[in-house]
Each structure stands twice: as C-alpha cells, then as structure tokens.
C-alpha cells in the first residue's frame, strides 16, 4: 500500500501536468483557432505526449472546452473576490470596470478564445455544463452596486446589471480584439502604454455618466 505522501505527490503531479497542458492548449487555440490547433503541437510543447493529453481530456474538443472553462473561471474568480460593498456606488462601479479592464489587458488569449468561440456560435460553451451553469459574480456585484446607487437617488432606474456588464465588456474587448485594425485605419494603438491611464479612466467615466444621466 502506497504511503499517503506518495498519493499526495502523485495527485500534485497530475494537477501540474493538467495545468501545463491547459496553459499550452490555451495559447495554441488562441493563436490558431479551434480548427487550426493540433493536439500533436500541444504535446510537443509540453512534457507530455498526445496519448497522455487524450487520457486527461478525452479529445481535442474536450481540451478546447477545458481551456474555455479555465479562462472564464479566472475572471469569474476575480469578480467573486472583489470587495466593493464598503465603497460609494460610483467608486464601486469604477473599481469593477477597472478590474475587467486590467484582466482583459493582461490576458489577451482570453479575448482571442472568446472571439473564436463566437465564430463557432458559442456551441461549445452551450454544451459545457461548467460554463453554462457558471454563475456570473460580476452580475451579483453589479446588482448590489446598482441597488445602492438607486436607493441613494444617484443612479437611473431603467438599466439592469446585464446592461452595465455589456458596456464594460464591450469597451474592454474592443480595445484588445480590434487593436490592429483600429491602428491600421486610424493610426492609434489602443494598447499604447502612454494612453493606458486615459482609457482606464475613460471607461469608468462612461459607465458613471450613463448611470447618472
């Protein structure tokens, strides 16, 4: 019978291997899309084999879905842990917007994966129990902020949390997803570090101005 410490170490090895595969797979799918990504290439860039990848995930589609689930779980966890209940409603909404702004900028592969999944009409997300059943902490946080703002007479009452979530996400996704075409047409790089603070402030201002109009 194996010692408990050996069992624990084996479990850790499995978790490390799975995490390594997912990290490489995320980059591969983000770079080449679902159709263009190859499990052979993913295996070659990890310390595993194609057979081991199939053992852990079952197949290419399951691996792609697992990469999506991992990407969404990261932002959902950040939203869930966000503590803004002690802030004034305007400051709280700005903090949530900044969280999304920072996350999306730091995780361009997330934006690419979302764009790719939309090309596939969200069919993989729709079939994922983890994703379709994943609660959206951002909506919970937004609902509390909006309720406090309305009770104080500072926010309009004809918008809901999903409206504001859409506005914040649209701004943050556009800045990443359309960076190169926007730059080619207008000659401005939306990821220019010199304008980062400007765009981050602009997002919060847009949301607050809309809520207080």
From TrEMBL:
Gene3D superfamilies hit by this protein: Tetracycline Repressor, domain 2 (1.10.357.10)
Molecular-function GO term, any one: DNA binding
Superkingdom per UniProt: Bacteria
Residue ranges constituting the HTH tetR-type domain according to the UniProt record: 15-75
Q: Which GO terms describe its biological process?
A: regulation of DNA-templated transcription
Q: Which InterPro entries match?
A: Homeodomain-like_sf, HTH-type_TetR-like_transc_reg, HTH_TetR, NicS_C, Tet_transcr_reg_TetR-rel_C_sf
Keywords from UniProt, A to Z, are:
DNA-binding
Annotated region of DNA binding: 38-57
**Alphabetical list of PANTHER family matching this protein:** HTH-TYPE TRANSCRIPTIONAL REPRESSOR SCO4008 (PTHR30328:SF54), TRANSCRIPTIONAL REPRESSOR (PTHR30328)
The protein's name in its UniProt record: TetR family transcriptional regulator
What organism does the record attribute this protein to? Amycolatopsis orientalis (Nocardia orientalis)
What lineage is on file? Bacteria, Bacillati, Actinomycetota, Actinomycetes, Pseudonocardiales
